[in-house]
Predict the 3D structure of the following.
Amino acid sequence: MAILVKGLKSAAYVLRSGPRGPCVYILECGDGTLYTGWTIDIERRLKAHHAGKGARYTRSRLPVCLVYRELLDTRSAAMRREAAIKRLARAEKLEMILGQRKRSI
């Protein structure tokens, strides 16, 4: 299944959702802020965010758009990577997001 991805003031592009598994993701919220989380089922988690049943932070900042996804081997690796990304400055997160876009083209 394809997940429509847009945001960061650029044309929309598509991330292909692969097999389910632990991943870390970044959402761009309606107010332009970035939210980082982890999940084992990205499609289910995105549906929850869009329905306003995701994280408390995103509920008041709808709509949200998936702008980054990174698959990992284990849940603990996903949680560690989420923590590492949350420690990054916004500019570093944006570089990471744009770097993924360049690799997927």
Summary: The longest helix spans residues 90-104. Residues 53 and 59 are 7 Å apart (CA to CA).
